[in-house]
Amino acid sequence: MQIIEGGVTAAKGFKAAGMAAGIKYKNGKKDMAMVVSDKPCVTAGTFTLNRVFAAPVKWDKNIVYNEAYAQAIVVNSGVANACTGVEGDEACALEAKTAGEALGISADAVLLGSTGVIGMQLPMDRMCAGIKALPELLDYTKEAGTLAAEAIMTTDTVSKQVACTVNIAGKEVTVGGMCKGAGMIHPHMATMLCFITTDAVIEKKALQKMTSDIVEDSFNMISVDGDTSTNDTVLVLANGEAGNDTIKEGSSDYDTFYEALSYVLTELSKKIAGDGEGCTCLFEVQVKGASTKEQARILAKSIVTSNLTKAAIFGHDANWGRILCAMGYSGVDFEPEKVDIFFESNAGKLQIVKDGTATDYSEEKATEILSQNPVTAIADIKQGNSEATAWGCDLTFDYIKINADYRS
Q1: In the chain, is it the N or the C terminus that has fewer CB atoms within a 10 Å radius of its CB?
Q2: Residue 346 assigned to a binding site
Q3: Catalyses which reaction (predicted)?
């Protein structure tokens, strides 16, 4: 696998654009993006399990699960089109119809994404004007992909893109993607949107299975604030332009492509966690020695979502009791008196707990380690060979400021 620069335009046959359509922002900020494939794409997706889900989530589920192909994605930021009733559903239909006419494809081949304030109706005059203008801006360049990535941001401080290539039976296959998210991040399939493009030839069933499996270990293992968004969406489009033999489940090619898709989804997940609203560092939690993968996942997520632990990371305070406490209320069974806990960063690694009690560690060294970015906490529960990793961030004063003023 080779890591390359780029995002949604890295794979062959994909073009993108981003622009300011005036959806919500009045300062010329980019707020609408479009991604289009030259050919129809097999698709896969995972979506929020929040019972309150946005209109575009409903629209995309229908296409991903019931249509053979899709060819374009239209995304807006500023307004989430969530809790908008029938009018929100009608807005999706009009978006897709307008995009289909502008691109010369079926409305059923247009996927949608929205992010922003819940409860507001989309300004459809500006939405449709933006959709009609975007095709003229579409390009295959890395710069065009970056404009699209910037256009889907809300409280993000940086755009988020990842791409890589792998060799499958002599053919170079590329996977690239973009995502957005900094707050309302606790995916359960944050506001979290992720769009992946690839030129691989792959069966739709195989693409959906690997996407669902990888999301469990990537986006479903991040948290910024414990709030599962109404709009969480991961979409993967594969147009087959690489010309490789069709990837099917159970083959070695499946495993090779799985590695590439997993890399892109995991790195994008970490970019969201590391850009959490107001944060100063990415906080990684590794749980080792678990009896099952699920036990490790639950323990890691419990630690990474603990507000007290997140505050301690912000204060560079090795308050390990908060970690053990978060493990204790996770709901899974383990033996506290066997737990070892370590802190690690580029400043070194330090064991602070052995068999459930504190070691004679240096507070000064612990503070040095916790003052870096990223910071990793490792908990070994010594029950088996399973492990899992979760990602989050520290909890700072600025998180409150950002969310107190979000609608203004």
Answers
A1: C
A2: no
A3: L-glutamate + acetyl-CoA = N-acetyl-L-glutamate + CoA + H(+); N(2)-acetyl-L-ornithine + L-glutamate = N-acetyl-L-glutamate + L-ornithine
